[in-house]
Amino acid sequence: MLTCETSISTQAIQWKCVESKTEHKRLHYGRFVVSPFKRGQVSTVGIATRKASLEEVQGTSITCARFHEVVHEYSTMRGIKETIHDVLVNLKEIAPKGDSNDVKEAVSSVTGPKEVIAGDTSLPPSIKAIDDLQYIVTITQPISVNIESKIEKDCGYRIGKSNGCKDGEFPVDAVSMPVRNVNYSVHLFGSGKATRETSFIEIWTNGSPTPDEAITQASKKLIDLSSPFLHVKPEDISYSGDSESSSASAGSSSQVYDVNELAKKLFTNMFIDQLELPARAFNCLKKAEIHTIADLPNYSREDSSKIKSFGQKSVDQVSKALWEHFAMELPKNQLYIN
Question: Could you tell me which of 300, 333, 338, 306 has the C-alpha nearest to residue 319?
């Protein structure tokens, strides 16, 4: 028995793809098994991998589109079935795949009548559309339509701001989140002190990247995020809340870490959708331009209750959700000033 336990405890953790399929062009599925872990380690790895896959894996998307002789997002063009707003929504659904971090440009120049799809767009050599059949717009008359698009690689959700746009250029609410969903499960094997855990990880992507590419990117990002802590020396850190420590280290080369600022950076790319709020509270926050977890500490409990149609019940719901999901509380006084 001792020999068995020693063998298991020293066995290297390995992973393998046990299932891979394309449900459709913009939905790819992968299932991976990772083993062996000590008890409790699967949850540690699973939670971190899930969050990194959903929030840190970069995606390529259309961020801006330009239409000739168009002055407003809700304008209509002669010979086009959709409004410009509808076309922007359709462009948002296109899933380009590319490795470059530079801004790229694409052009759709089509003469109707015709139903325009992603395959009709001239893309740079380093970019390809995952689904060439993705619908864009219908041209109902024998006219030429030109759409110039900007393509960028990023993380998270970028909210387009129309102010400042000119010459028929309109921002697209780009979703650079190629990982659609991630699940993990824990399975025990062995007995007694030799008990170990196996994890099954399921991941769905839009095809750029594939599930195995996404989980690899997420793992590398976790390593990059953790690596600075390997070089931290206790004597090089002072805390802004500790007056004696701050005084003692005055004049030294110590690095001061502001906990509030670190928290703000951490939650910048985490959206309020993750709080799973009731529809009323969620919609009120969106209307108040509160989109991320980092936006919430800008409002104290008293400030929050003054948001239009956002009563004390909604404040309590947000406060409870913040605590349950992130162990955070709405401040009594404002923490950050925009």
Answer: 300
